[in-house]
Amino acid sequence: MTPTALFAAAPLPLLQNGLMVGAILFSLGLVGILTRRNLIVMFLSAELMLQGISVSLVAWSRYHGDFGGQVLVIFVLSVAACEAAVALVFVLQAFTRTGRLDSAAWQSLREASLARSVDHEIPAIDAPLPVFPRLTPAGVSPETDADAALQREHV
Amino acid sequence: MSPSFLLVLVPLLPLVAAIVTVLAGRRLGSRAHLPAVAGIAAAAAVAFVLLVITARSSGGGEQPRPVDMVTTLWQWATVSDAYAPPADSPAAVPGTAVGVDAHAARPFSIAVALRLDPLTATMLMIITGVGLLVAIYSIGYMHDDPGYPRFFALVAMFVFSMSMLVAASNFLLVYVFWEAVGACSYLLIGFWFQKPEAARAAKKAFLVNRVGDFGLAIGVFLLWLTYGTLDFHDTLSPDGTILPGILGQTRLADVSGYVGGAVGTAICLLLLLAACGKSAQLPLHVWLPDAMEGPTPASALIHAATMVTAGIYLIARSAPLYMACPGALVTVSIVGTTTALVAALIGTVQNDLKRVLAYSTISQLGYMFASLGTGTLLGFTAAIFHLLTHAFFKALLFLGAGSVMHSMGGVIDMRRFGGLRKLMPITAATFLIGSLALAGVAPFAGFFSKDEILASLHQKGWPSAHGEHGEHHAFMPTLPDAATAGPTLHDVGYRGVADHGEHTLHTAEPVGLDALDSPGVWQTLFWMALVTAGLTAFYTFRAVFMTFTGPLRVPDEAGHHAHESPQVMTLPLIILAVPATLAGLVLFTTEGLSSFLAATPSFTAPAVAATAAPAVFHWDLALQGTLAAALGIVIAAVGHLGRRSDGPQLERWLGPVRPFLENRMFIDQLYTAVVIKPVEAVAYLAAMFDRSIIDRLVQGVARLPVSVGNLVRRLQSGLVQRYALAGVVGVLAIIVLLAWRL
After folding, report:
1. Is A117–B724 a contact, with Cβ atoms under 8 angstroms apart?
2. What is the mean pLDDT of residues B401-424?
3. Core-most of A129, B84, B342, B590, by most CB within 10 Å?
């Protein structure tokens, strides 16, 4: 049974568009998490999947004229914020241990008899880096505060 | 202190000593002998007091009063209505069940009960006395041995077990301690278990003894079936009637108290099998010579003086059972005499001093069996008499051999040393005394006991030469005088077959073995025993001459040890030399031992007591025995006196017989071929079956999950993306499945 509508239900095309955007976001996130090895990018991809779901929730909420879906999205957002804090700590720790952000650096949990997975081909970048145009410096250089500069280096 | 308390003390003190030595042995270090020596010494003192108490209460005199004090410590097992005999069991056939209501259920009750009677008191004195001297001697012999505390713990444990064996008043307890002394013997033979020969000898002794123990177990079962009790003594049942024990006064007083025929003979032969195992009689004697791998004091205590006499004790104790079965009795004699002769023959060509003594032990034990088998009071007491004197002089000889071995740096082959009489005068003198006693030279101890044994055999072979007593057959005892016989089974309100007046016991079918009980057989046994006496003198003095006479020669191994042994070792030798010299003379002339032993309940059975003969010194027998001994000594002197011990052997004229004897008549080889090899073949087959079929099956079962696991283990790659992919695939599969089903 449909809950009591607190606002007017949206028409069907809005739902379809919303779901499509959600599905696209989810799929991009999925592809990202399966193909990228950078821990931060993988985490971003996971967030992307989460947001895809959130978008479809909002779309369904509009379609049914019910706040339930949107409440859930707010809840998901707050959880995602906490999760981001925790996950970034993990990533940071992983980085300080190995000096790399590659998830393949952590494959020692595999079965003992299996060989380590090694990258045989590193995509070569043959093309020379493009030369970007540089702007001529103008104005005066800002006054630098020695203490502030010192602190910044430590951030 | 009451006798029963003292009786408990005799086994208890060595047991406490053993436990203390086990617990505190390492801390005591070189003083680890203290608990054992003190415990055994105290036990010996108590045993002496008991001996005096028993002698006082038996009172001596013409009609020995049975002395039988039983102390029940606690009830070990009680099962009421334990067994209702089936209709066809021996117990239900009239005339075979004695003291048991044929159809009543019987209570099975085993009490931990000790008894004091002359036989037990004598045995206790021998065990603790020799045990004490051996323990003192071991202080010197075993010094610096890494297993010093272990040795004394085992010796104390052995004295405990052996005391319990001879004091137990119940066949089941006898069985328990029969095994316990066997275990102590096993541990002491294998004392130097690092030596493969010692470990093998220990195993051999244990396994050969097991054959005999099997006989004892079956014999005890059969006793229970036949007599409905395993107690020696009479017990009072809750309803006030007396339950006659197997060797209790009630049954002993009744002429029809014992089962003859096939059942009785089977019991006796099974007990004989047990005795053959423990006392190293043919065909189970093979373990004793090998047992010499153990420390010499252990050989002296266990394998010469005490444990090996357990078989003699068992048969002497069961004398009334045997009296009902003349066939079994004569078998005992035949086994004993044959063993005596065979062991003496093998002993003549042995070059290992301890092995000579081992074969001599087997031979002398054979003498005792021969004497027991005569089934006369003279025979039984002569066997115990010889047991006593043998314990003294054989312990003396073994300790002397140990002294020689100690100073020769462990060498015991007589061809490698000689002329030691100047080097170790005390050992030589005491060894000579022991040898004179063993050879049966008057007036040393062995002469008198051996003479009594020969007399008992002679009495059976030529009954007419010994007056009227030869006329009775063992299984036809004279009815005792009603006034002296004491209560019969009827008088004590005993219920059962006897109530129907069916005294058909001794009309039980005679068995085939009984036919052997003829004068011709006994005459043959007498001559065999006489020849053995000569051989005994020969091999004993061959050993004496090879070891102590001739030019002095000492093996290289002796090193700084080549001198007389320390005082702690020579003192027991000197002490033992005294009874080895005098015990026979004193006990024979005073008749102290035989009249003392006659008060043992087992020997007061009418069947035994009726054979009592006035003690007569048989000059003709003594002369024959002495002549045989003298002949043996002369031949030994011709061959070995004053010669180099590695010189040409006198025995070389034996020709083809010599290798036969040197290989111990190929009995070991026979056992190897007949018993060991087939068993090994079966064991090999079983091992092959186990390894190739059972193990393969089990391993096949184990390999299945491994191979399945190998298939899926590749999934565990450690790459996060793979796991994520697996998750995605799984979710897709679930979605597809749901979509399809919906």
Report:
1. no
2. 85
3. B342
Q: Please state the pTM of the whole predicted model.
A: 0.75
Residue B174 domain-assigned (yes or no): yes
ipTM attached to this prediction: 0.73
pLDDT in tens, B678-708: 999 999 999 999 999 999 999 999 999 999 9
Residue-wise DSSP of B438-495: HHT-TTSHHHHHHHHHHHHHHHHHSGGGGGGGGGS-TTSPPPPPHHHH---TTTTT--
Contacts of B716 in chain A (CB under 8 A): 109-111, 114
B250 near B304, Cβ under 8 Å?
no
Q: Predicted confidence band at B713 (pLDDT cuts at 50, 70, 90)?
A: confident
- Secondary structure element (H or E) that encloses residue B108, with its range: strand B106-116
A-chain residues near B724 (CB < 8 A) = 33-34
Residues B639 and B706 in one domain: no
Chain A residues in contact with B735 by the CB 8 A cut-off are none
Residue B276: per-residue pLDDT: 92
**Residue B475 pLDDT exceeds 50:** no
Q: Give the DSSP per-residue string, A141-152.
A: PPPPPHHHHHHH
From residue B187, how far is each of A92, B155, B181, B293, B397 by CA, in Å?
Answer: 70, 10, 10, 12, 23
Q: What CATH number has the domain bearing residue A89? A: 1.10.287.3510
Of B719, B720, B728, the CB nearest to A30: B728
Range of the domain at B248: 3-482+515-662
What is the model's pLDDT at position B681? 95
Residue B506: pLDDT over 70: no
Across the interface, which of B713, B720, B725 has its CB nearest the CB of A103? B720
Nearest residue of B to residue A35 by CA position? B721
Q: Are B435 and B609 in contact (CB under 8 A)?
A: no
Q: DSSP characters for B396-454?
A: HHHHHHHHHHHHTTT--BGGG-B-TTTT-HHHHHHHHHHHHHHHT-TTSHHHHHHHHHH
To test the contact with chain B by mutation, choose from A30, A31, A34 the residue with the greatest count of B C-beta atoms within 10 A, namely: A34
Contact across the interface for A111 and B720, Cβ inside 8 Å: no
Q: Do A114 and B716 touch (CB under 8 A)?
A: yes
Residues of B engaging A, defined by a Cβ cutoff of 8 Å: 713-714, 716-721, 724-725, 728
Could you give the angle at the alpha carbon of A147 between the alpha carbons of A143 and A151, nearest 5°? 115
Residues B649 and B727 in one domain: no
